[in-house]
Design goal:
Length: about 220
């Protein structure tokens, strides 16, 4: 008698062998698809050190040094104050007066700012809120918070040390840049920090990562 068509056979089926590398590749493709496709890894920012000059678009900046300084007490009821200072030579390349400003408390807040210090989007190690930062430029008449066009100014960004606190050996800064962008409403070019939209936030792109050794001298 002939076996009906489509009937199952009693012979055991041979297992299909799938190479391990194929399983790994299939899994990787599946995970990549689930995460939304291949994404290029972001480029590492340029590593810079003392004396380097960076074109930030709106500013040309030389990273002079990092040091510990002391402001001596002026009376018996006062006390000496010790600071870690970041020293820059900054030229405002714009056509209008710019502000020295302060580093933003959060990186996503920096995008809306155009001051020089706002471009220091991350400073490592982080200091306590009570430490500052404080920032100013040196001028012939004393200290100023403004940077005039086409004029080089020495800018100081400082953090106060607690009594007995030791300064860090090094300080690193993630530094952003600026570009001229046409306004959405009037099409007038304005300086704006270079950033990428991440979710509902604008995160500055890091132009360079600068590391400075902290000079202690006799002030530590």
């Amino acid at each position: 008698m002939t076996e009906p068509s489509g009937a199952s056979s009693n012979k055991p089926r041979r297992p299909v062998v799938v190479p391990a590398f194929a399983l790994v590749a299939f899994t990787a493709v599946g995970i990549t698809a689930m995460l939304g496709g291949l994404r290029e890894a972001p480029d590492e920012p340029d590593p810079l050190g003392q004396g380097a000059v960076l074109d930030q678009g709106l500013y040309s900046t030389k990273f002079v040094e990092s040091r510990v300084t002391v402001e001596r007490a002026t009376s018996v009821v006062d006390e000496d104050k010790r600071f870690v200072e970041l020293v820059f030579d900054v030229t405002n390349k714009g056509d209008e007066t710019a502000q020295v400003g302060l580093p933003a408390q959060k990186i996503e807040q920096a995008f809306a700012m155009t001051s020089f210090a706002s471009s220091l989007v991350k400073i490592t190690p982080a200091f306590d809120k009570e430490a500052g930062p404080f920032a100013f430029a040196r001028a012939k008449g004393g200290e100023t918070r403004q940077l005039q066009p086409d004029m080089a100014s020495q800018v100081i960004v400082r953090f106060r040390l607690k009594p007995g606190e030791q300064p860090p050996a090094k300080i690193s800064m993630d530094v952003a840049s600026f570009e001229l962008e046409a306004g959405a409403n009037d099409n007038v070019p304005r300086w704006q920090m270079v950033a990428q939209e991440v979710g509902d936030k604008w995160i500055p792109e890091i132009k360079a990562r600068v590391t400075l050794n902290v000079k202690k001298g006799d002030a530590a």
